[in-house]
Amino acid sequence: MRAGSLIRVLFVALLLAAIATAIAIFVPWLPDNASVEGGRIDFVFWFVTAICIAIFSVVASVSVYSLVKFRAKPDDDSDGPPVHGHTGLEIAWTAIPLLLVLSMIVVSSVALAKNDRDPSDSMRVEVLGQQFAWLVAYPPAGAAEDADGFICFNRDTGAQVDRRCKGSTTLFLPLDRHVRLHLTSRDVIHSFWVPEFRQKQDAVPGLETEITVTPTRTGNFPFICTELCGAGHSLMRSRAIVMPQSQFDAWLRRGVRR
Amino acid sequence: MTATVDEHAAPEEHVVTPPPTGWRHYLLGPGWIRAIWMTALFFGLGLGLVVGLRALAGWDPIFFWEAIITVAALVAAPLGFLAGLGAFDYWVAWALGQPTKPEDHSGHGARNWTDYFRINTDHKVIGIQYVTTTIFFFLAGGMLAMLVRAELARPEANFVDAQTYNELFSVHASLMIFLFVIPAFAGLANFVLPLMIGAPDMAFPKLNALSYWLLPIAGIMMLSSFFFPGFGAGWTNYAPLSVDQPYGNVFFSMAVQWAGASSIMTALNFLVTIITMRAPGMTFWRMPLLVWANFTTSLLVVIATPFIAGSQFFVMFDRVLHTNFFEVGEGGYPLGYQHIFWFYSHPAVYIMILPGFGIASEVISTMSRKPIFGYRLMALSLVAILILGFSVWAHHMFVAGMATWLRIPMMITTLLIAVPTGIKVFSWLATTWEGKINFSTPMLWALGFVSQFVIGGLSGIMLGAVPIDIHVSDTYFIVAHIHYVLLGGSLFLIFAGIYYWFPKMTGRMFNEKLGKTHFWLTFLAFNATFFPMHIIGVQGMPRRVYTYDPQFGNWNLFISISSFVLGVSFLIFVYNMVVSWARGERAPANPWRGKTLEWQVSSPPPLFNFDEIPQVVGSPYEYGVPGARHAVFNGDREAAREEEEVRA
Asked: What is the pLDDT of residues B305-359, one digit of tens each?
């Protein structure tokens, strides 16, 4: 490749990178984050997006340049130069993507390991999916788990076991507190998702799945099912409400059997 | 190999046995009349079997329609149809010890259009049967997509109810995957692959005919699931939801068996054909990349397809026989379904793209007038994808609740697959570099594929990173990704292949202007339809919903309108194909000046492909090399020997 064409390709690449970056910045992609875990996921999202923009710009600029520049003239029946390959180039476009994906693997693994932790001071909340509503239950302090690892719900039947649990169809959470959600389902597979928290986890019948959420701002967010669960799947929508700890405590005390 | 060709060496005049006349011939000879009464007969036998057994066992009710439909309509009747059409005639006669009908080639080749509607053993006829049938199901699946988009144009519920909506997108996906993308590639390869390796036909022509006729059965079964509502669990058909669905779900479980059997038979046929029927001199390293691509794809099909068959049998047994593979209350394990299902269905996405990679390599090299860049690495990257493809299935299950540690190795293999895929994209671009690019219709589709596949590949990398996947799993981001790789990828390549080989298949040229209009309209409408889905997905719109949060209303309206334009664009294609096939200009043998073997014979090719056996002497992509040839024909044996010596 001659220097002249290299400069032109580079120019096109920078132009395309600028356009792609503008799309990344000015389109409202991710909803405003509302959890510590979400912050880590956002970091990975933008880290990978930046690499993708770089790859896209290189590939697109080379193709745009090539297609404009090397168009055959209508009466030109000749062949191009018989280039069969270039070992150096082939090694480069094997090695560089390899390094890029390795960096993504490392960044993703670190974020995942941090997000998966269950801090010792976490508050336990149990979530039950059923056709077509969410049930949330807050176990009383010091209550013991049953053989299946649940306090409020029976894992297999979905029936409420411990009457002292506070139940709700809305997910209420205290601000700045690690919350460990224990999920299960009483019929088919559902999936827990609050887009503002980023965290998602399937609720599977017969299994206990767990996920940590640490809300960082108060608000009222959509809390939806994302796994097709039958005819009412579209309507399996609820809200997640984050409130300051004192307000949450007051809510938790109301109407609970002691 | 040589012997086979000589034995078959096209008889100059076809020995036409005068057809026996009278009602016995029409009623008992293979054909549609026998197919109709044998379908009814086998349905009756199935019904009798179920009713008889239930009566003997004293079960109530005796007329239990779920069991009757499963056995009589979904298993026995299709077998009767195939038998009536004559798919089993040779084997049945052989198994019964009766004299088998000697091969008189009467079932080979098409003399008029009716020959496309019967058991035909000519790979070229079968290839065309495949392509036209799959396009029919593509249009049917596309209509369903239009209905889905019509419902989604506004946030509230509009004109279909929830269960019908679930059935619409389930059948849409099933038709597109099992009745369009997979068999359309198989059909194109069926036509060109034997030609490309210098073979007179596929290794097992009767098996080839049978594998085609399984397809319409599977397609009709999927479409008729609407009349027995219940297939509304998505094409993934996750248990336990699928087990709890109404009865129509069995139609999907069984249709997948028929389509899967068809895939496996074709794949075995390709493997044996490629291994044993290459022309003299056609070493593996001289095979066109399309042949390499179908070789690796066939290995994927043969190894993986039994797993989806298993997963659907389990679901069906849970329903029909009351086994407990997935019912939790009885000790079943729902995640087991997903592991088995994705062990096929992830390799299936490579089954749906690798043959296309082969088409892209052929088209881009020919139209750029340059050898394919890095031929060996291109072939080896196919093999790398084949091997890695079996180790990534659980990346569909990052939020499914499987062991959390399993996500890390699956992420590593998933992201590693980007490397061989990247090699292919870079090599295609390097092939165009400094070429003499001819922007004909097939080339537009191939280049359109590269550009869209890059976008789909990059969103795939994002999905491969577990933390991102956790956020966007089961949202419209996934819908966007899958359509960028399957519509922008596979569909564009199917069009590239159809336009590229249309002159060879039909002997006529298509209308270039309409072909280009089709491309640009599809290309623009496709991006307008699917790019915004990335945005609403990340913002929080889940997939597989018929009503959604009003904040996504404007984007969805825009998407729906674009999708209707996308739907209309395919009518141009249908018009172009039909009119060009009937009245197009006669095609020369080699309109694109290609080097591979199929271009060295007439358009359409002779009945047994090659009047003389080609002797392969070099690479299929020697553009720009003075005097280089891929193959020489019999007359030129001397020259071939000299050329081989010079190379040695």
From this structure: 999 999 999 998 888 888 899 988 778 899 999 999 999 999 999 999 999 999 9
A45 contacts in chain B (CB < 8 Å): 462, 467-468, 471
Helix ranges restricted to H, B397-511: 407-416, 418-432, 441-464, 466-472, 476-485, 492-506
Q: Are A150 and A159 in contact (CB under 8 A)?
A: no
Considering the entire predicted model, what is its pTM?
0.93
- What is the dihedral angle through the alpha carbons of B36, B39, B42, B46, rounded to the nearest 10 degrees? -140
Yes or no: say if B487 and A131 are a contact pair by the CB < 8 Å rule.
Answer: no
Query: Which of A176, A188, A43, A61 lies closest to B468 in space, CA to CA?
Result: A43
Distance, CA of B187 to CA of B166 (rounded, Å) = 30
Nearest-Cα distance to chain B for A164, in Å, is 26
**CA-based nearest distance B219→chain A, Å:** 24
Domain B123-583: which CATH number of 1.20.1260.10, 3.40.630.30, 3.90.1300.10, 1.20.210.10: 1.20.210.10
Residues of chain A numbered 92-121 and touching chain B (CB < 8 Å): 93-94, 97-98, 101, 104-105, 107-109, 111-112, 115-116
CATH superfamily of A123-253: Cupredoxins -  blue copper proteins (2.60.40.420)
Residue B576 parent element (H or E): helix B553-583
Question: Of B357, B437, B431, which is closest to residue B389 (Cα–Cα)?
Answer: B357
User: Over the stretch B542-551, which tens digit does the pLDDT of each residue have?
Assistant: 999 999 999 9
